Amino acid sequence: MEPRSTEQPLILLVDDDVQSARLLERLLEEDGFRVELATNGALAIARLARRPIPDILVTDFRMPHADGIAVARYARSLRPDLPLFLLTGYPDLVARLGRGLEPAAVVHTKPIDYMALSDELRAVVDAAAALSDASRASRPSSPFPSPA
């Protein structure tokens, strides 16, 4: 993930069930995430075309205009390592259609276990932060060698 100073990660949440999406958005914000909401696949793709690219994509599978797999594939065309979370009532279908998404998307079956989703999102954020810290620590603080 791209470093964003001290800001919390940005999640693009995509779900055509507006009531459920607003509830999930509120819970994620209460847990410290920044969330942008798209209510269908076409709106999600339009949002992904703008900068900044979100840090994490959480998308429903069955939606009008473009399904979650199409949104995920487009997102990965822009950022191959983007963490993907697919929410679905059709996990077998998602597994079959989602082949080729590497790294694989994390699939959550509806109704969503919010605590499990939140824990996995936090783990992704923590891993990215640790990687970013390690990358900064391995770089010299100055491009010039220190005097001997």
How would you characterize this protein structure?
- By secondary structure, the chain is α/β, with parallel strands linked by helices.
- Helix content is 43%, strand content 16%.
- It has helices at residues 18-30, 41-48, 68-78, 91-97, 114-138, and strands spanning 10-14, 34-38, 56-60, 84-88, 106-109.
- Strands 2-1-3-4-5 form a five-stranded parallel β-sheet, with helices on both faces.
- The radius of gyration is 17 Å and the shape is globular.
- It is built from five helices and five strands.
- α2 packs parallel to α3.
Condensed summary:
This protein is an alpha/beta fold and 148 residues long.
Tag the structure with descriptive keywords:
148 residues; alpha/beta; 5-stranded parallel beta sheet; 16% strand; globular; disordered N terminus; disordered C terminus
Proportion of strand residues: 15-25%
Q: Using only CA atoms, what is the Rg?
A: 17 Å
Largest sheet: 5 strands, parallel
End-to-end C-alpha gap: 36 Å
Count of helical segments?
5
Output mean pLDDT. 86
Q: Please give the order of strands in the largest beta sheet.
A: 2-1-3-4-5
Name the helix and strand elements from N-terminus to C-terminus, one letter apiece. Answer: EHEHEHEHEH
Protein structure class: alpha/beta
Q: What is the global morphology?
A: globular
The number of E-state strands comes to 5
Helix content: 40-55%
Q: Low-confidence spans: pLDDT under 50, at least 5 residues?
A: 1-5, 142-148
